[in-house]
Amino acid sequence: MATGSYEGDTAANEQLLEAHREGRPLVPYKALWAVLLFGWIVSYADRTLTGPVIAWMIQNKAGFIGDASNPATLGGLVGSMFFLGYMLTQYPGGRLGDRFGHREMIIVSLLAACVLTVVSGLMAGLVAFVAARVLTGLGEGVFYSNDRTLIINHTPVAKRTLGLGVVITGLSIGLTLGIIMTPILINWGTSLGMGGSAWRMPFFVFAAFTFLVILAVFTFFRAKLGGALRLGPPFLRLLLFSLPTFIVIVGLFLIAETFRWPEWLTASIASLIALVYILVVVRSVKQSGRGPALLNRNIWLVYIAYIAILWNLWFFSF
Question: For the chain, what percent of residues have pLDDT higher than 90?
């Protein structure tokens, strides 16, 4: 039984290598695009709803944001803490995908988005809500660095760029749905008698849709892209990395709230934390021998250009 399984795996690997050499797909690549596209949609909707929810809290003086003395500043700080967590798992997410499987990391990321979006909607206090959103960001951050690889590996060479473009449109679709649907869902919650807790409704609805997408992605991966998935090891390793990062980010939020220092100081410390992580990443890349591929001049220009892209994206999102 074990020998037969081993021989089957070997044959599958040989087929995959042959497909790569000939530039043809081994899986229905358009279906792969579709499931990853929906993964992006729900993932980005889950993260975008924070902004409209906080805006509603401020406008209606509801929840733990509306009751604060500086709700607008506090709302911006919550969004910043989420994005800091999201940013800091991009690189380790890719490394974990190389080690444990890109399919596995995508499922882990979507599960984190689903579960922690529900948890965010259940929180009754500011610090607990921020902690849940930071964890959401840490979990969702690993999606980007793994879906790109799956598309490239399983799409014909002539259509790879098209596939990358099609799938990433899920980002803007999810962002748009998150902004438009959140106030509609809050109004629905109000009509159901939720009152000041109506802000919770979008979290529950978006999490439900995320769960449906997880089922579709998981089923597709098992049937068409490599069989059984082992989620335990990558989840535990991601948790091991995320825990100290989580403590640092939530600690920054608590200190900023306690001392009520100006926003620029919080932003400066967050930037310093990011810089330290970047230096650690650069050092790790150089030690791995991949410096010429990942740290050459052209790649650095791409890295720097993306600062402007993500600045505008997140500025309008929050």
Answer: 44
